[in-house]
Amino acid sequence: MSPSTPLLPDPSAPCPCGSGDAVGACCGPVLADARPAPAALQLMRSRYVAFAVRDAAHLLRSWHPTTRPGAEELEASLAEGLAWRRLVVHRTERGGPFDDDGIVEFTALARATDGSAVRLHETSRFVREHGRWLYVDGDVAD
């Protein structure tokens, strides 16, 4: 299966991560791999946008190699058609420019193709290796 083409928003549009900034000043450069995320929170926000626009390349690139799924598995997950609507960040621990690890707890809200609401509450773990933040894994809460 070949990677899908992401549906990237216009750089002047509000960023889907909910930061209040335009895509071009927020997650856009991280998604385009023009600059690394400066902190775990920014990587998590860019990954949320990547799920929203089905950017498998960014998701794979930002996933730690020890826990990264295969491209076909990720593409199948993205093909489920969830329409991600809102991101709420609850807390962060570490994850700054001088840290080697960090935690971000968030809730992401989506709409399934059948119209039902989907809620993902996760506490995600990140590490910084060679100056780049990577998503390791997360604990999903009920």
Q: Termini, distance in Å?
A: 32 Å
Q: Kindly give the count of domains.
A: 1
Strand order of the largest sheet: 1-2-3-4
Mean pLDDT, to the nearest integer, reads 94
Tell me the CATH topology.
Nuclear Transport Factor 2, Chain: A
The rounded Rg comes to 14 Å
Top CATH class: Alpha Beta
Structural class label: alpha+beta
By DSSP (H or I, 4+ residues per run), the number of helices equals 4
Which residue ranges are poorly predicted, with pLDDT under 50 across at least 5 consecutive positions? Answer: none
User: Order of SSEs, N→C?
Assistant: HHHHEEEE
Shape: globular
Measured as a percent range, the helix fraction is 10-25%
Number of strands: 4
Summarize the biggest pleated sheet.
Answer: 4 strands, antiparallel
Tell me the strand percentage band: 25-35%
Question: Can you tell me about this structure?
Answer:
The structure is a single chain. This protein has 142 residues and is α+β, with helices and mostly antiparallel strands. It has one domain (23-141): Nuclear Transport Factor 2, Chain: A (Roll). The protein is built from 4 helices and 4 strands. The chain has helices spanning 28-31, 40-53, 56-61, 71-78, and strands at 83-94, 101-111, 117-129, 132-141. Strands 1-2-3-4 form a 4-stranded antiparallel beta sheet, with helices on one face. A hairpin with a 5-residue loop joins strand 2 and strand 3 (117-129). The chain is globular, with a radius of gyration of 14 Å. It starts with 27 loop residues before the first helix and ends with a strand. The mean pLDDT is 94.
